[in-house]
Amino acid sequence: MREIDVTEVTERVREAVKALNFHTPQPALIQLIDIQQHEPSPAGRQAMKAIVENRQLASQKQVPMCQDTGMVIAFVELGQEVRLVGGNLREAITEGVRRGYAEGYLRNSVVAEPLFERRNTRDNTPPVVHFDLVAGDTFRLTLACKGFGAENMSWAKILTPADGIAGVKQEVVRCVEEAGPNACPPVVVGVGLGGTLEMAAFLAKKALMREIGTRHPDPRYAALEAELLDLVNATGIGPQGWGGVNTALDVRVEYYPTHIAAIPIAINLDCHLQRHTVLAW
After folding, report:
1. Do the Cβ atoms of 72 and 128 come closer than 8 Å?
2. Which of 249, 266, 101 is nearest to 196 (CA)?
3. Could you tell me the residue range of the domain that residue 103 belongs to?
4. Are 257 and 186 in contact (CB under 8 A)?
5. Are 65 and 54 in contact (CB under 8 A)?
6. What is the C-alpha separation between 28 and 43, in angstroms, rounded?
């Protein structure tokens, strides 16, 4: 039995939320610079130039890349052979968010309830936490700071089996087209298929957490991802909606078994910031 003190979780989350808002990992920066250099649209190149310079300045000066510093989402993979000590894991993650947003002078964007008072919680908590119990003594925490310009353009629905692959393609392209510049392209498109309505939404969000350049292990879904990326980039929306061939950085698909009567689908957009990281113990 492996023992982990959750106070360490608080400290690592505290540092991670600041780093996610300030720093662009080198692979992501390389991808953005490459797009800037090869975008054929002059307006699109100008938009990418501003994006790259903003990211570089944020890292140098340790200031947020965007005024929307996001709502924190955590995906927990907890091994059955791990024993947590020192407190409650959810509370430890929440405390890390609270401290990190205060120390980083990051904007607090979470309201206590969504409809009536919409009172700000003043510390960007609570985060959204998903737990997955797995075999062994693994403990991994995937952490994201999800901006709502792109989140606002996301949705879920149920297709019929007759809609098939063509229906999925149509809905993904339609979502991106309707989002236009509002999701701050170039975007990453997460697509969740199958399960139930809430499972599809979960899968779409989880798809966004993949590393840059990875493809689905099932070759059929890997081919679908590549085709969807081409279809999205053919819309001509381009960087920041200024026109061009780089509307999306990537399209990632995840699936789950589902009922014979439906194809649940969710599409979750992420802006070019891609603020997520993996903490492992």
Report:
1. yes
2. 266
3. 2-21+65-146
4. no
5. yes
6. 21
Is 52 a domain residue? no
pTM: 0.96
Measured from the Cβ of residue 107, the count of other Cβ atoms closer than 10 Å reads 14
With contact defined as beta carbons under 8 Å apart, do 185 and 241 qualify?
yes
Please tell me whether residues 129 and 242 are part of one structural domain.
no
Residue that has been written with the tokens 């106070």 in this structure: 7
Q: Can you tell me the distance from the alpha carbon of 46 to that of 242, in angstroms, rounded to the nearest whole number?
A: 9
Which helix (H) or strand (E) segment holds residue 277: the answer is: strand 276-280
Residue 281 within a domain? no
Asked if residue 251 and residue 128 are part of one domain, the reply reads no
Based on the fold, state whether residues 8 and 140 are members of the same structural domain.
yes
How many Å apart are CA 14 and CA 34, to the nearest integer? 32
Q: How far apart are CA 201 and CA 218, in angstroms?
A: 20
- What are the Cα distances from residue 226, in Å, to 9, 168, 250? 36, 14, 8
Helices (H), the chain: 6-22, 26-38, 42-61, 89-103, 148-151, 164-179, 197-207, 219-233
How far, in Å, CA of 276 to CA of 211, rounded? 9
Please give the chain's pLDDT, 281 residues, in tens.
899 999 999 999 999 999 999 999 999 999 999 999 999 999 999 999 999 999 999 999 999 999 999 999 999 999 999 999 999 999 999 999 999 999 999 999 999 999 999 999 999 999 999 999 999 999 999 999 999 999 999 999 999 999 999 999 999 999 999 999 999 999 999 999 999 999 999 999 999 999 988 999 999 999 999 999 999 999 999 999 999 999 999 999 999 999 999 999 999 999 999 999 999 99
Give the number of other Cβ atoms within 10 Å of residue 123's Cβ: 17
Considering only CA atoms, give the Rg of the chain: 19
DSSP state of 153: T
